[in-house]
UniProtKB/TrEMBL annotation:
Pfam families: 5_3_exonuc (PF01367), 5_3_exonuc_N (PF02739), DNA_pol_A (PF00476). The keyword Hydrolase applies. Residues 3-264 form the 5'-3' exonuclease domain. This is DNA polymerase I. It comes from the Bacteria. SMART domains: 53EXOc (SM00475), HhH2 (SM00279), POLAc (SM00482). Signal peptide: none annotated. It catalyses: DNA(n) + a 2'-deoxyribonucleoside 5'-triphosphate = DNA(n+1) + diphosphate.
Length: 879
DNA sequence: AAACTCACG
DNA sequence: ACGTACGTGAGTTTG
């Protein structure tokens, strides 16, 4: 096997990372996104290629031979944005810290150095890989020199690979001929002039036919089309100059030492420190604990597996102000309990013999009488330990979520790294891999025990700092008064679950099946062949190629067949109408009829999980199954709600807030006109239309009302004329006019929304009425698209988040009151602005009163919080 | 695993 | 000029 060298085009990879990926900033406000992206792609390629040598090439600012040859060269190039410029020294510092060789040479560009080292290495018989974002490098490809171009599509990075063959395949010319192409076409980003009137197509044709610019010039009369012929005749000199400029110099006088380019372990203590300073948390994972001085603290774990030892341990634990606990268990069995008294006393207690799960959970429950139990996830503890006082527990996951709701998980290793001075602990994955808890308990008790210890250790140690940060950020009240009590409320909802008629669900599914099969036949007939209607790819080919429907391309990978596209075609094509119906029915069958059927428990009820640490705004989410997206808008789908029923002797009471987000907007903005509107109107959209379009209330047309409603929604989503125009199928101009009229009508709204964006930019986050924060890093992005997204988020999150806060407060109060009053009714579902209560028939009146009082009284707004309430013998009827 | 589609607020 | 509504979760196909 020959040796391999990896050459990286420093600036171009940094550039790509900067423009293609979201920007990051650390606590010092330094921009670091591009550096982070650079490292990610570099390590990915390093792992794939495992080269013996590595070097990164950078341009210098001094003029190059190209400047001397051609004055305008790069003369008018756009200046680098400041956010990127400041990251150039940073990446160099990082590479140095990692002991990675950097090369640059006055008078030459990075390309030339890459080319030079590539040719030299090739001559030594090495394999060469060049990593760049710049297609110009393709001219260097050979059978031994691989050019790799990373591409980012929607935040996901893939890499295109080119040896000679791939260049030929994609561009129809050899790698050296890439230069000819570029010289003809020009390249505005490099200020290669090119010749007028020749684009990619013509240039390719010319080079395929003639091989070079010179040869084309010699056979000028054969050059087609005419325009290209004349252009080449007139600008031949320019083309030759361009060629010269575009040619990478592979023979620069670079002093290059393979010795210095040898790949060593990049995970040095210096690099670790720098990654920490830049807050590259995920990068820190890669570092070997041995190389990182400060994470080498050894934790000592003890096992306690005799009854008297456990008794003594719990007695000692009861004397502490706080203890860390963990309960590793499946729904029906406890495997191991972790108990941490302080950093020196960390215990695992495996279930076995006299130490049963019930016994240990009983001990934990009793322990809560005398100390505070700290856990990663209190709700999971509640499944086995029936605690009832939020004041006696601490939930590290919930606390960390409040401090940064944008994280994808809140595991013990993440929290240790972030809140315990960068402490690196093994993750669950590291300890158990994909082994189930049950299997680990049977076969790898040691590893399971370690996991239990870490799970108990981290929340115990991090409690202090997490609470301090909640205090500092003004979120202590949200934690104490909303989120922590909510853990108990959600646990209760999960335990109760909701009763579902399995048989009816089945027959509903079978009815759907009949119609689906009919439709399938019809569609195949209309298409003239059998194909998989569920495959957007196959469907796109049938509709837009075989049948030639208008519409054409839409997505990255092919034709879009989404409903909003098909809707437009449906009136004219029977097959489209059938496909839409087919889609609707298969969705209902697979996701709801079959999907829900599969998760009915032995008790005949569905027990969804309500996730408290998922959403960026503060809403809860529902999984396994998701009960927050049960159909309601279409009647056929809505029928599914008939299978959700209360148990014998109960009815459903369903209460939903009426336009809570708009009311929150009215309150937070303080716009008197909108507030007044809510005091008067029963139909806010109609009133909005009347005020915006200056017509009397009873003369508002249905179109005007629809438009006003869309604007109301748009405002809440972070208004943009484009978005509104899409929603209403009108031009952007018209949409902009609606928005302007709206802002004229409600003058404080605009100021309020602008203020949110301004505050967001200033602080880096926005807050709800109750102080919940959402960071909005996109607001500081130099990328227009990302920044615009940030602006919409800054406008929407405080509104959506405040509404989420309000209903959470209401849920807690309803739950606590029903409990205090000894009622047998129970909260079973929350759907963002709606609560569903399985109500004991004797308690209907009392529960109605509680619901109304607690929902309306959850927050004190300038407008009333209106609640619609219904009762029924199924969810369908209670809506 | 990612892309696409679609259900909800 | 860029190219979008805000927030979710799940099923299916495909590379």
């Amino acid at each position: 096997m020959s040796e391999k060298i990896l050459l990286i085009d420093g600036h171009s990879i940094l550039n790509r990372a900067f423009y293609g990926l979201p920007d990051l900033t650390n606590a010092e406000g330094r921009h670091t996104g591009a550096v982070y992206g650079f490292l990610n792609i570099m390590f990915r390629i390093l792992e794939e290629e495992k080269p013996e040598y590595l070097t990164v090439a950078f341009d210098l600012s001094a003029p190059t031979f190209r400047h001397k040859r051609y004055e305008a060269y790069k003369g008018t190039r756009k200046p680098m944005p400041e956010e990127l410029r400041e990251q150039v020294p940073l990446i160099k510092e990082m590479l140095s810290a990692m002991g990675i060789n950097i090369m640059s040479l006055e008078g030459y560009e990075a390309d030339d150095l890459l080319g030079t080292v590539a040719r030299r290495s090739e001559a030594k018989g090495m394999d060469v890989t060049i990593l760049s974002g710049d297609r110009d490098l393709l001219q260097l490809a050979t059978d031994k020199v691989l050019i790799r171009l990373p591409k980012t599509v929607r935040g996901k990075t893939t890499v295109e690979n080119y040896h000679t063959a791939e260049v030929l395949e994609k561009y129809q010319v050899t790698p050296p001929q890439i230069i000819e192409l570029k010289a003809l076409m020009g390249d505005s980003s490099d200020n290669i002039p090119g010749i007028p009137g020749v684009g990619e197509k013509t240039a390719t044709k010319m080079i395929v036919q003639f091989g070079s610019i010179e040869n084309a010039h010699e056979h000028l009369e054969e050059v087609k089309p005419n325009k290209a012929k004349e252009s080449l005749r007139e600008h031949y000199d320019l083309a030759q100059l361009s060629k010269e400029l575009a040619t990478i110099n592979t023979d620069s006088p670079l002093e290059f030492s393979y010795e210095k380019a040898k790949v060593e372990n990049p995970y040095t203590p210096e690099a670790y420190e720098l990654c920490k300073r830049l807050e590259f948390k995920n990068m820190l994972n890669r570092f070997d604990p041995a190389t990182t001085a400060d994470s080498s603290m050894e934790l000592e774990f003890f096992t306690c597996n005799d009854l008297s030892g456990v008794e003594a341990l719990f007695e000692k634990a009861a004397q502490k102000d706080q203890v860390g606990i963990s309960v590793l268990a499946d729904p029906d069995q406890v495997y191991t309990v972790g108990l941490v008294l302080d950093e020196k006393e960390i215990y695992q207690i495996p279930v076995g013999g006299l130490l049963t799960g019930d016994y240990l959970c009983g001990k934990l429950k009793a322990l809560a009488d005398s100390t505070v139990l700290c856990a990663m996830d209190i709700k999971s503890v509640l499944k086995h330990v029936s605690l009832d006082d939020p004041k006696k527990v601490f939930d590290a996951g919930v606390a960390a979520y409040l401090l940064n709701p944008l994280k994808s998980s809140y595991s013990h290793d993440d929290i240790a790294r972030e809140y315990l001075d960068g402490m690196m602990l093994p993750s669950k994955e590291d300890l158990l891999g994909k082994t189930s808890l049950k299997k680990a308990w049977e076969e790898e008790l040691e590893w399971l025990g370690n996991y239990a210890c870490y799970q108990a250790f981290v929340p115990c140690m991090a409690r202090k700092v997490l609470l301090e940060k909640l205090d500092e950020t003004g979120m202590r009240k949200v934690y104490d008064e909303i989120e922590l009590p909510l853990v108990f409320t959600l646990d209760s909802m999960e335990k109760w679950g909701i009763s579902v008629k399995g048989e009816e669900l089945k027959s509903y599914g079978e009815k759907l099946k009949v119609r689906i099969q009919e439709l399938e036949k019809t569609i195949w007939q209309e298409a003239g062949e059998e194909f998989n209607i569920n495959s957007p790819k196959q469907l796109g080919v049938i509709l837009f190629e075989k049948l030639g429907l208008p519409g054409g391309k839409k997505t990255k990978t092919g034709y879009s067949t989404a409903a909003d596209i098909l809707d437009k075609l449906a009136p004219d094509y029977a097959i489209v109408k059938d496909i839409l119906e087919y889609r609707q029915l298969t969705k209902l069958k697979s996701t709801y009829a079959d999907g829900l059927g599969n998760v009915i428990g032995e008790d005949g009820r569905i027990h969804s999980t309500f996730n408290q640490t998922i959403t960026a705004t503060g809403r809860i989410s529902s999984t396994d199954p998701n009960l927050q997206n049960i159909p309601v808008r279409m009647e056929l789908g809505r029928l599914i709600r008939k299978v959700f029923v209360p148990e014998e002797g109960f009815v459903f009471l369903d209460a939903d807030y009426s336009q809570i987000e708009l009311r929150v907007l009215a309150h937070m903005s303080g716009d008197e006109k909108l507030i007044q509107a809510y005091r008067e109107a029963e139909d806010i959209h109609r009133l909005t239309a009347s005020q915006v379009f200056h017509v009397p209330l009873d003369e508002v047309t249905s179109l005007q009302r629809r438009n006003a409603k869309a604007v109301n929604f748009g405002i809440v989503y972070g208004i943009s004329s484009f978005g509104l125009s899409q929603d209403l199928s009108i031009t952007r101009k018209e949409a902009a006019a609606y928005i302007e009229k709206y802002f004229e009508t409600y003058p404080k709204i605009k100021g309020f929304l602008d203020g949110l964006v301004k505050d967001g930019k200033e602080h880096g986050y926005v807050t709800t009425m109750f102080g919940r924060r959402r960071p909005v890093p996109e607001l500081r992005s130099s990328n227009f698209m990302q920044r615009s997204f940030g602006e919409r988020v800054a406008m929407n999150s405080p509104i959506q988040g405040t509404a989420a806060d309000i209903i959470k407060i209401a849920m807690n109060h309803v739950y606590e009151r029903m409990k205090k009053e000894g009622l047998r009714s129970r909260l079973v579902l929350q759907v963002h602005d709606e609560l569903l209560i399985e109500t004991k028939k004797e308690e209907i009146e009392e529960v109605s009163r509680i619901l109304e009082e607690e929902m309306k009284g959850a927050a004190d707004l300038a407008v009333e919080l209106d609640v619609d309430m219904h009762q029924g013998d199924s969810w369908y009827e209670a809506k």
